[in-house]
């Protein structure tokens, strides 16, 4: 059993101070967490992308705190060495600090070491309340999928100088409020570099270029497990969707032809019991 990565260790991983870039991947269940952990990733994000890649919803808005608790507990049962971060779903941290702390506490009790929430300066009071309750918070700026309607779809953000300055201000506000790291999603690479240079906490990019202090991708995207979307920021490291369909097809063919199961894949009675039943064995 190795050493579990901690929030302060991740919060200290700034590339400009000589740290290696952080590697984060989403995980939604125990087998996925085990595989990602065996690959040596630094952090597992129980993302609310769960809604889209596992539960079949068109966006992340349908996922509930109950859903997130269920999947966070599954990831935690894998006992990963990677840091486990769980997303606070939409509307679980918008209403009051009390509700926010209560919802985040459920994710921590399910096994997360930190929570992630989306949004900038408007979220500062909730981040401060969480940090005061000893709940570490990862921020998330730029293309924030819970704002799909407000942002008019899943669109790259901060494409103007004015919006870029606002993004930098939001990052500073999140850092000041106590976030230990900030995800930057769907922003021009130059803007992500500006934020990364400005804040002293690590930035973790997704569709945000190479200058961030780390990168995160969705498990199903990088493994080629889903085919409906091909965003340019995803590099597919495997084609497990095609491999899975081919394997299941071979299984179906073997069942239909009678080739599966073989005698070696079946159990047998001992000779005496078989004889008592009038069977060959
Ligand atoms: O839910 C998620 O998977 C995320 C990542 C895209 C950062 O928030």
Globally, the shape reads elongated
Largest sheet: 8 strands, parallel, barrel
For the residues shown, what is the average pLDDT? 97
Q: Which residues form runs of ≥5 with pLDDT under 50?
A: none
Q: Could you give the order of the helices and strands?
A: HEHEHHEHEHEHEHEEHHH
Structural class: alpha/beta
How many angstroms does the end-to-end distance come to?
45 Å
Helix amount? 25-40%
Rg of Cα set: 23 Å
Q: Say how many strands there are.
A: 8
Bound small molecules, by name, code or SMILES, are: 3-methyl-2-oxobutanoic acid
Determine the number of helices (DSSP H or I, runs of at least 4 residues): 11
Q: Give the DSSP E fraction (strand runs of 2 or more residues).
A: 5-15%
Give, in spatial order, the strands making up the sheet with the most strands.
1-2-3-4-5-6-7-8
Structural account:
The chain has 281 residues and is α/β, with parallel strands linked by helices. 38% of the residues lie in helices and 13% in strands. The protein has an eight-stranded parallel beta barrel with strand order 1-2-3-4-5-6-7-8, surrounded by six helices. Helix 6 links the parallel strand 4 and strand 5. The structure holds 3-methyl-2-oxobutanoic acid. 3-methyl-2-oxobutanoic acid (KIV) binds next to strand 6.
